[in-house]
Amino acid sequence: MEDRAREDRDWQRLDKWLWCARFMRARTDCAALVALGRIRINRMVTDKAHARLRPGDVVTLPVRNDVRVVRVLALAARRGPPGEAVALYEEVSPP
User: Fold this and answer.
1) Which segments within the chain are labelled E, that is strand?
2) Residue 2: what pLDDT?
3) Taking the model in full, what pTM does it have?
4) What angle do CA 42, 81, 58 make, to 5 degrees?
5) What is residue 93's predicted lDDT score, i.e. its pLDDT?
6) Left (φ > 0), alpha (ψ -120 to 50) or beta: where does 3 sit?
7) Which of 17, 36, 55, 89 is least buried, going by the fewest C-beta atoms within 10 A?
8) How does pLDDT run across 20-57, given as a tens digit for each residue?
9) What is the dihedral sign for C-alpha 20, 26, 32, 33?
């Protein structure tokens, strides 16, 4: 139970963060994208929607016909408006 108390404060589920950051419309779509194994956290492939994401982590994900690399700046308290969502991450140039 103590681990649940730390969620959204110290870490956040990958699917929830992607949804709050507005990379997809539905959280189930975020979980499905993760399950395909096409998302990386700090260059490590993951297929777990419950993977723990922390500020400072770098997420690589496919969006449409492109690949986006973003650094997590903050965890989401809620799914807010787009202006709030972009404050959760910064774009990182691919190497």
Assistant:
1) 12-13, 39-41, 44-46, 52-53, 58-63, 66-72, 89-91
2) 66
3) 0.91
4) 5
5) 72
6) alpha
7) 36
8) 999 999 999 999 999 999 999 999 999 999 999 999 99
9) negative
At 17, which helix (H) or strand (E)?
helix 14-20
Question: Looking up tokens 């492939």, which residue turns up?
Answer: 45
Distance, CA of 43 to CA of 92 (rounded, Å): 13
| Length of the chain counted residue by residue | 95
- What whole-number distance in Å separates Cα of residue 78 and Cα of residue 80? 6
**Which residues are paired to 46 by β-bridges?**
39
Q: Which residue has the higher pLDDT, 90 or 2?
A: 90
